[in-house]
Write a structure and sequence with these properties.
Elements lengths: L1 H16 L2 H18 L1 H8 L7 E7 L4 H14 L5 E5 L14 E8 L3 E8 L5 H21 L5 H8 L16 H39 L2 H8 L2 H36 L4 H19 L2 H33 L3 H7 L1 H16 L7 H6 L6 H10 L5 H29 L8 H8 L5
Helix pairs in contact: 1-9, 2-9, 4-5, 7-9, 7-11, 7-13, 7-15, 9-11, 11-15, 11-16, 13-15, 15-16, 16-17
Length: about 425
């Protein structure tokens, strides 16, 4: 019996992996992941107008060019861009017809508002450039106001400088709101989205394979050779093995993309992106995320595996109840909605800090796998709560298997939709 079980698992995996489409799709996935991770380098490689610095000429009629240029360059540095060059030229507007790609900023005195400004350009400038110019003009105006107030330079600097704010959180395990938002975004991107994609793939794959065997009447031959329980377990194990293999391949592709990025890090665009990844790692480290992952790694792994099994069992049960792939696609809609609810609740958990409703959802199987890890990593629930959520998922998965197998035994050889639901509910009381 064990040999038959191994054969069914290997046969099912071979049908999915040893195909041209699997190889073609994975090659495309590798190319896409490498492209997405190194997109900024590729954009820079092909070049374009963005490589040329944008000249901003200043007509200074108030004597504040230094203030304007200093503040503007500060803004450009904060936005990690060096595509601007500030030039003082009080005569550039003598021939407005000669203005092409240039942007001219005019600083004029005002009797009522201290400063009036004008932006002259041939075409409409970008919103980012416009906002930076306006902010720099406001800085000039603030200096003009303060310089006429009779205050010392030190007092002017103190008044114009931003307020220094230090956030002190007494709870050592707590995180700041900004950190929670950043961590929530990273968790949903790295953990939740790949899990969501793999689950969708697994559900559709199980439905297609089981319905294909039922449609071709191959199911009768298989069930006559092995018990329905063996067939059921082989499908579940093969589906989970497939998504785990696909998940490992995605991790390898991501590693290749990051390795390529490090090789290309000598260019300015790639260096900036590499610096961004370093900042993300530093931010996660400072927030204690790696410490939380180390403490809860075993629990998280059990939660993810148990949830994969629960989704696989549910998909296999639904597939056994249908007679063709079209019916299965309709029946799997509620399952897809459950997954979408879990995904969106995980995204909203950061915005609704301390929500009791979201905390309750973190204990509901099929939803908990997307909600609980997010809440745990942003400090909303403890490791004990995460363990309790995992335990509930494991228990529910067991009962899904116990009672789902009864439905599977009846549904797998059923080729008629007549009184199907009555048969399914009746099968729940069958202990054989």
């Amino acid at each position: 019996m064990k040999n038959k079980f191994k054969y069914l698992v290997k046969y099912s995996l071979k049908k999915k992996i040893d195909t041209k489409w699997f190889k073609i799709v994975n090659v495309l996935l590798l190319v896409l992941i490498v492209f997405l991770v190194n997109m900024d380098y590729l954009i820079n490689l092909f070049g374009g107008d963005f490589e040329e610095k944008e000249n901003i000429y200043v007509v200074d009629n108030v004597g504040s060019f230094t203030t304007f240029s200093t503040y503007f360059n500060t803004l450009a540095t904060q936005m990690e861009t060096s595509e601007y060059e500030i030039i003082l030229d009080n005569n550039i507007l003598e021939d407005k017809d000669a203005i092409d790609d240039e942007v001219v900023v005019v600083l004029n005195p005002s009797n009522t508002g201290y400063l009036s400004g004008e932006i002259v350009s041939f075409d409409t400038i970008s919103r980012t450039t416009y906002e930076m110019i306006v902010n720099a003009m406001n800085a000039v105006k603030s200096e003009l106001v303060l310089s006429t107030s009779g205050l010392t330079p030190e007092e002017i600097t103190a008044l114009s400088s931003p307020v220094e704010i230090t956030e002190t959180v007494l709870n050592e395990d707590a995180q700041s709101n900004e950190t929670k938002q950043n961590v929530g975004s990273i968790v949903t991107t790295i953990l939740i989205i790949p899990f969501f994609i793999l689950i969708v793939t697994m559900v559709q794959m199980l439905g297609a394979e089981i319905n294909d065997e039922k449609t071709s009447r191959g199911m009768e031959i298989i069930i006559s050779s092995v018990p329905a329980k063996t067939h059921f377990l082989s499908k579940v194990i093969a589906a989970i093995s497939y998504v785990l293999i696909q998940g490992i391949l995605l991790l390898i592709y991501s590693g290749i993309a990051m390795l390529l990025r490090n090789i290309l890090a000598s260019t300015s665009a790639a260096s900036a992106g590499t610096g961004m990844f370093s900042e993300i790692i530093t931010m996660l480290s400072d927030a204690g995320i790696f410490s939380l992952l180390a403490k809860g790694s075993i629990v998280l792994i059990i939660l993810f595996i148990a949830s994969f099994i629960a989704y696989a069992i549910t998909a296999a049960i639904l597939a056994s109840m249908t007679t063709n792939i079209e019916d299965f696609q309709q029946l799997q809609t509620p399952l897809m909605i459950i997954m979408l609810v879990g995904y969106y609740v995980a995204l909203m958990s950061v915005m609704f800090d301390g929500s009791i409703f979201i905390h309750i959802l973190s204990f509901i199987p099929l939803l908990s796998v997307m909600v609980a890890p997010t809440l745990y990593l942003i400090g909303e629930i403890s490791l004990l709560s995460l363990a309790l959520s995992t335990l509930i998922t494991v228990i529910v998965t067991y009962f899904l298997y116990k009672y789902g197998l009864r439905i599977y035994k009846v549904g797998i050889l059923n080729y008629s939709s007549s009184k199907l639901w009555r048969k399914m509910f009746k099968s729940l009381g069958n202990k054989e």
